[in-house]
């Protein structure tokens, strides 16, 4: 029974294929009568084919392949019956999908032309076939070389330059400082100092070069700030001692006496009492 049904199906396809030049002449001219008949059979007729957009026509007849565990390199994506047409199959592999989209769009238009035209004619199909062939040939052409473009002649007329306070401020803001100049220079046979991030300092901080220039890193600045605060604290303590015999509470010692046992005394106060007694 299955063989009989398959034979009947083939007879129907052969009959439709033999009549395609009268039923759909433009479609047969573009993709061939065999593929056009199979396409109409899948769509359900020429009138049903006119209702399908081009993006869906290119996927008609595509086989669903289970690619689990296999390579997807050679798997054809959304390429159905139209991929086997001569105009698409003769294209280079890199341009086949691009050509397939063009053919699918033209098939959608030609199916409507064949369905609603009064007299059978393949003039539109021949026109579209030539258009697609020209596009494919143009895609394969090498890119045109860029012509050497000569530089424009320099203007001999001197341009007016802006002056004034604003322009001078702008120049001072963006001018290259001495520090930047020394940083951009490289000493001969001298190792360059760098930060932890690998940023170089050039000739900054090197002996004999730019005596007034030196590298100020964050650590150096912190140490200088701490030294300054420490110096201010020492000066403040000295001023307190000069005023009325005041002494720092940090200067003290512990002694043992037979009467009180452990006793905390201030040696500076003892020295002051001795001086007053001797005076």
UniProtKB/TrEMBL annotation:
Biased composition, class Basic residues, residue ranges: 159-168
Subcellular locations according to the entry: Nucleus
Predominant place of localization: nucleus
SUPFAM superfamilies: Nop domain (SSF89124)
GO biological process: spliceosomal tri-snRNP complex assembly
InterPro entries for this protein: Nop_C (IPR042239), Nop_dom (IPR002687), Nop_dom_sf (IPR036070), Prp31 (IPR027105), Prp31_C (IPR019175)
Domain Nop intervals: 23-141
Gene3D superfamilies in the record: Nop domain (1.10.246.90)
Record-level GO cellular component terms: precatalytic spliceosome; U4 snRNP; U4/U6 x U5 tri-snRNP complex
Region (Disordered): 143-168
Keyword terms of this UniProt record: Nucleus, Ribonucleoprotein
Keyword Ribonucleoprotein: yes
Functional note: Involved in pre-mRNA splicing as component of the spliceosome. Required for the assembly of the U4/U5/U6 tri-snRNP complex, one of the building blocks of the spliceosome.
The protein's name in its UniProt record: U4/U6 small nuclear ribonucleoprotein Prp31
Organism: Hirondellea gigas
